[in-house]
Write a structure and sequence with these properties.
Length: 63
């Protein structure tokens, strides 16, 4: 599975690496985008993924 989910303040690039779904997040993670991250996670799991890794390296944590 490889895909990109874009939101106004955050993008999620999803790809498979060695049997693991890797979701690379870029942008802001806050109360506005958290629900979109939850939806993306549910889509990954519903797509059959059993191992998921979130890469937060390019996330800006807004308070």
């Amino acid at each position: 599975m490889r895909g990109k989910i874009g939101m106004e303040f955050m993008t999620i690039d999803i790809e498979q690496k060695n049997g693991v779904s890797v979701a690379a997040l870029k942008g802001r993670l806050d109360v506005i985008t958290a629900s979109e991250l939850d939806k993306a996670f549910n889509e990954i799991v519903e797509g059959g993924a059993r191992k998921v890794l979130f890469d937060y390296e390019q996330i800006i944590n807004c308070r």
